[in-house]
Amino acid sequence: FEKKLEIFKADIQNNQNELDQIRSFLASATRDRDTAIQTKRLEAAEALLRARSALSQLTMLIEVMKILNTEAILKSADDPKVIEFINMLLKPFYLDDKLKGLGTIDQTLPRLYLSERTLKAFDAYNNIILHAATTMKVMSIPLLTKDGLIRTGNLSKMVIELVPGSKEGFDKWGEKFAYHWSTYFHDEILRSLRHEVSGADDAARDTRSIERVALESRRAQITIRESLKETGLPDTLIKLEESAAASSFAAEKAAV
To answer: Which of 19, 76, 156, 195 gives 20 to 30 Å between its CA and that of 201?
Structure first.
């Protein structure tokens, strides 16, 4: 009986050792998995920041679009002077090359490893930039009518979902009010990534972004006025006061 008891105890000890080994293996595997996931998450964050940086090269284009009276421009769709004016504004951006470069950035890792909050902020920023680029391209083409070539509704819906307080602005200024939220989402991408990767919460707005936008807004105004003068077109093709009011309203809502 004692011999059987010793064997039984030995079996229990062996089983316990096996359980300890299994636990150790699982703990190690979990650490390795967590490390691997964190590594992938960092790679995903770097990829998203590269895409954000590429998009930000078109910030000046957003500032131009904020000021332009797109309704008046589209009504003069086949006016050679208007087409020349738009192409003068587009020329410094090398838009086709920049859009081609954006298409080469692989977003697979961000879609797999980053949070919904981060991706929604990026998608909003991405869509605002691409909408501005597409609208400018359409306005630069000499066509009798451009109705239906520029999609409306999608941008406002996306921004309102993420910032419900923006709805009033869209009701007042229409779809192009989305352009006044580009800086907010540009900064929100970085804030969300910081929280996701390091757990840091940063509610402060990036003052450098605000300063950069203010500078580029001023540059856009100067460029547009010079182009209007050169082509002999009237100031009715721009809406400076409306743009300033919309920008102020967006800044107020973003600070809430």
So the answer is: 156
Query: pTM for this one?
Result: 0.82
* pLDDT tens, residue order, the chain (256 aa): 455 445 545 554 555 555 555 455 455 555 656 777 888 888 888 889 889 999 999 999 999 999 999 888 888 878 899 999 999 999 999 998 988 888 888 889 999 999 999 999 999 999 999 999 999 998 898 876 666 667 777 899 999 999 999 999 999 999 999 999 999 999 999 889 888 877 666 655 556 666 677 778 888 889 999 999 999 999 999 998 888 888 888 888 887 6
